[in-house]
């Protein structure tokens, strides 16, 4: 016997209806991972198990410059004191070999006058190396060994002075000190600009001295897996900016908005607003240029993780013209305003351009409605003010009203009078 068919069609049954309901994409919670570049520009990277430590000693000057200040000052002090003590021992040995330390010696030629103990030899070593002469201790021409030690100490002292003072100068004039006045916006934004979905940040320079030949580079860092199964924990992908396409450098006179158009070649092409919240990408921004006053190349860095990228926002204008001078209000440097932006990825907007057109039309209508409400509110306020002034005028002019005049005419057949006003 054949099975009886259901009265309700299959497409309207429970399984069919469930299959037709659009399912929301399910994303896993984003694991808190360490960022590659900190907000202040420092690299969050630890070097471990370096076996060839001797390579750092092959470049002593760079090693000294890279050290922290407390270690540099300790090495600076230790080097000078050690050299003074070493040559103090040399002067004491010269005096001892020549017999200058004999307390019973009355007459004769001394190698160094008034050097009769190790303390006096240490003081003479300091006087020789730092070129301070107090007149009590001096070398004589009768001792060739003392002249040789004097020449050696002068040469060694000059080398130590050159290295240590040069190291301190380089530490005080490092290029990263200039980068402290190069600022980035706290958040990055994604919004529609020139009918294209764009990733934007704002950069600025607090000093009046300019950065010559400033360039901005953007990189997206994320963990990727190749088709062969190789895991790349830090995969750096270059991101093209409008400034790099238009010219080779930036004229960083006032704060600028760096814009990256999210197109087919962008690593953000398949990223929607919902996927952005769960992604583990990090956008690194690198600003390079030459300091105008010193001629030293400087570099400022920062990064933006997914929590620091605001979808559907735009930076507020901060440059205004006041009395013939352009003024920059840095209190609004990182302020953003919400704008109408479709929550779809750039790929979906390219496949369905009508979504972007409808969003822009809705934003235009809402903008016009807000303008109408604002104008109506202003009109009502002006009418209220105008109504109050007219009532005041009527109240003030009430005392100037024309008085009523009565005209009396004799009535027929009586003495009654009719009043006509």
UniProtKB/TrEMBL annotation:
Bilayer topology annotation: Multi-pass membrane protein
NAD as UniProt keyword: no
Alphabetical list of InterPro entries matching this protein: Ig_E-set (IPR014756), IRK_C (IPR041647), K_chnl_inward-rec_Kir (IPR016449), K_chnl_inward-rec_Kir6.1 (IPR003278), K_chnl_inward-rec_Kir_cyto (IPR013518), Kir_TM (IPR040445)
Biological process terms in GO annotation: nervous system development; potassium ion import across plasma membrane; regulation of monoatomic ion transmembrane transport
Gene Ontology molecular function, alphabetical: ATP-activated inward rectifier potassium channel activity
Catalytic activity: K(+)(in) = K(+)(out)
Domain named Inward rectifier potassium channel C-terminal: residues: 182-352
Similarity comment: family membership: Belongs to the inward rectifier-type potassium channel (TC 1.A.2.1) family.
Residues covered by the Potassium channel inwardly rectifying transmembrane domain: 37-174
Protein name according to UniProt: ATP-sensitive inward rectifier potassium channel 8
UniProt site positions, description: Role in the control of polyamine-mediated channel gating and in the blocking by intracellular magnesium: 161
Pfam family, one: IRK_C
Protein keywords: Ion channel, Ion transport, Membrane, Phosphoprotein, Potassium, Potassium transport, Transmembrane, Transmembrane helix, Transport, Voltage-gated channel
Compositionally biased intervals (Low complexity): 378-396
GO CC term (a single one): plasma membrane
Transmembrane segments: 71-94, 146-169
Gene: kcnj8
Organism: Parambassis ranga
Region annotation (Disordered) ranges: 364-396
Subcellular location per the Swiss-Prot or TrEMBL entry: Membrane
């Amino acid at each position: 016997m054949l099975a009886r068919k259901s009265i309700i069609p299959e497409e309207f049954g429970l399984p069919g209806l469930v299959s037709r309901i659009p399912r929301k994409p399910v994303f896993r919670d984003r694991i808190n991972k360490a960022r590659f570049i900190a907000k202040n520009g420092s690299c969050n990277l630890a070097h471990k198990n370096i076996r060839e430590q001797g390579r750092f000693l092959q470049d002593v000057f760079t090693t000294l410059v890279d050290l922290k200040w407390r270690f540099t000052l300790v090495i600076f002090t230790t080097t000078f004191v050690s050299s003074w003590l070493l040559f103090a021992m040399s002067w004491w040995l010269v005096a001892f070999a020549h017999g200058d330390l004999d307390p019973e010696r009355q007459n004769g030629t001394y190698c160094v006058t008034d050097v009769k103990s190790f303390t006096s030899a240490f003081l003479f070593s300091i006087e020789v190396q730092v070129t301070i002469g107090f007149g009590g201790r001096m070398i004589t021409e009768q001792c060739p060994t003392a002249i040789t030690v004097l020449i050696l100490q002068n040469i060694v002292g000059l080398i130590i002075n050159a290295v240590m003072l040069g190291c301190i100068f380089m530490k005080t004039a490092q290029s990263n000190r200039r980068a402290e006045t190069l600022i980035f916006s706290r958040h990055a934004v994604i919004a529609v600009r020139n009918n294209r979905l764009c990733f934007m940040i704002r950069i600025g320079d607090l000093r009046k001295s300019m950065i010559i030949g400033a360039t901005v580079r953007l990189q997206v860092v994320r963990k990727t897996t190749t088709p062969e199964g190789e895991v790349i924990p830090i995969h750096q992908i270059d991101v093209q900016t409008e400034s790099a396409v238009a010219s080779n450098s930036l004229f960083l006179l006032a704060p600028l908005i760096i814009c990256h158009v999210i197109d087919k070649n962008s690593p953000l092409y398949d990223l929607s607003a919902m996927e952005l919240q769960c992604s583990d990408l990090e956008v690194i921004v690198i600003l390079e240029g030459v300091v105008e006053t010193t001629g030293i190349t400087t570099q400022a860095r920062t990064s933006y993780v997914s929590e620091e990228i605001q979808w559907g926002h735009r930076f507020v204008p901060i440059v205004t013209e006041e009395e013939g001078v352009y003024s920059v209000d840095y209190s609004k440097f990182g302020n953003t305003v919400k704008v109408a932006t479709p929550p779809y990825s750039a790929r979906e907007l390219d496949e369905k351009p009508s979504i972007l057109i409808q969003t822009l039309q809705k934003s235009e209508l809402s903008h016009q409605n807000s303008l109408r409400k604002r104008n109506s509110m202003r009109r009502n306020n002006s009418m209220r003010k105008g109504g109050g002034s007219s009532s005041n005028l009527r109240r003030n002019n009430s005392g100037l009203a024309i008085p009523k005049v009565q005209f009396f005419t004799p009535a027929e057949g009586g003495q009654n009078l009719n009043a006509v006003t």
